[in-house]
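Support reply, case 0932

Customer input (verbatim):
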Amino acid sequence: MILVTGATGAVGGEVARLLAAEGPVRILARRPERVTVHGPDVEVVAGEYADREALDRALRGIDAVFLVTNSPKEPDDLRVATAARAAGVRHLVKLSMMAVEEPGADDFITRLQRGNEEAIRESGVPWTFVRPRTFMSNTLSWAKGIASDGVVRALYGDSPVACVDPRDVAAVAVAALTGTGHEGRAYAVSGPEPITAREQTAHLSEVLGRPLRFEQLLPDRAREALLAKYPRPVAEAFLESAERQRAGAKAAVVPTVEELTGRPARTFRTWAADHAESFAAADLGV
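Our regenerated output:
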């Protein structure tokens, strides 16, 4: 039995779907009504990481855990790892980020994830870290601008990133959860090619069948937009990350997806074609 957390997100939801197609899976969800993976072998437990009683209930009889955390303040990785060790869990697979292994990355989010990884290492639970590059699905944040005036607005339109399809990240995580010999390993996960925001805009234009224009944001405007959505340390971390991408730090391609799944990583164009309806929904105001 495998426990999946983060199942209402892009990666956790796909992990749960893939596992449910093969056998029993349990999902821990703070809001169970938002879980979209269902079936006779899918069990959903209501609870959150700060609730040790709910954690113990979710971990009872569990062999492996897929862990997704995102709080900038709460020690959720430590909470889950401590409870997992007490429950006798044999393997914890954590969704982390590729920047943690890059010495030049020292923003707030990267430091936080480094600390989370260390907490899991020290817990004594056998671990695997899945460290993806930027998700292709982040471009869904452009949907409203595309719908309103056919414009994609982003920082540094010519800086490349080997962004990755969340479905491929999930496939790597499932391989680690269900295979053998992955304990103590950290897997960097990228897409098959570096691509710029201008190039992504061109692909979206072709997929959606409408002209799109790229407009580069000035840093101050980007900071203003980020501060409207995130706490300052998180917003500043995104800006620092963008500067690293501008310097070429995110362009490297790694073969992990093919090595662990036996197939190539999906291209951005494939991801865009598969999610065209999400951009169309924005056009309709959905």
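We compared this against your earlier run and they match. Two observations from our side: The two ends are 37 Å apart (CA to CA). The CA atoms of residues 150 and 210 lie 8 Å apart. Please reopen the case if you see a mismatch on your end.
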